[in-house]
Amino acid sequence: MEYSLKGKIIVGGTAKGMVLSTTQPINFLSSLDHRTGRITDKNHELCGKFLKDSILIFPYAVGSSVGAYSIFALKSNGASPSGIICTLKTDITTASGCAIANIPLLELCKEAVIPEIENSSEGIIDGGYLQIKKV
Q1: Rounded distance, CA 100 to CA 123, Å?
Q2: Element (H or E) spanning 19, and its range?
Q3: Does residue 49 have a pLDDT over 70?
Q4: What is the Cα 62 distance to its own chain's centre?
Q5: Helix (H) or strand (E) run with residue 34 in it
Q6: Angstrom distance (rounded) from CA 95 to CA 74
Q7: 119 falls in which pLDDT band (50, 70, 90)?
Q8: What is the pTM of this model?
Q9: Segment 41-44 long-range contacts (CB within 8 Å, at least 24 positions apart)
Q10: Would you say residue 132 has pLDDT above 80?
Q11: Which of 29, 57, 83, 103 has CA 20 to 30 A from 128's CA?
């Protein structure tokens, strides 16, 4: 199965990786290991998963604006997602973090019908679209 979703480009670029999708917000400052990209928050549904080279799909970031530097630290340590998709809103933490780390970022259009996206899918961000390919 293959489909694509249109998004608003916040930080341009192309990215490819396995989808890592959650309906829970992420606190980039306190919920993960910035050296490895592993989500460490025991209350998060992605606990134990690694962000490295993924297409992270999540609603928005929570917590301190210092989370933007946490995204940059992930990139500097080679542990960042390849690209990020915000499904509800693009917050300033995610937008500025992706901008300084040069990580492609899309916000899905409000009218987009978002199907159930499985974490075993491949995601590609290109030209304002998120393409999903079931592997």
Answers
A1: 22
A2: strand 15-21
A3: yes
A4: 13
A5: none
A6: 15
A7: confident
A8: 0.93
A9: none
A10: yes
A11: 29
The amino acid present at 117, given as its one-letter code, is I
Residue type, 68: A
* Catalytic positions, written as ranges: 64
Q: 131: buried, middle or exposed (CB in 10 Å: 19+, 13-18, 0-12)?
A: middle
Pick the CATH number of 2-134 from 1.10.10.10, 3.90.1150.10, 3.50.30.10, 3.10.20.440: 3.50.30.10
Residue ranges per domain, the chain? 2-134
Could you give the CA distance from residue 107 to residue 6 in angstroms, rounded to a whole number? 9
Task: State how far the Cα of 82 lies from the Cα of 50, in Å rounded to an integer.
Answer: 12
Orientation angle between helical segments 67-76 and 92-101, nearest 10 degrees: 30
- Contact call for residues 53 and 27 (beta carbons, < 8 A): no
Give yes or no for a contact between 106 and 85, defined as CB atoms under 8 angstroms apart.
yes
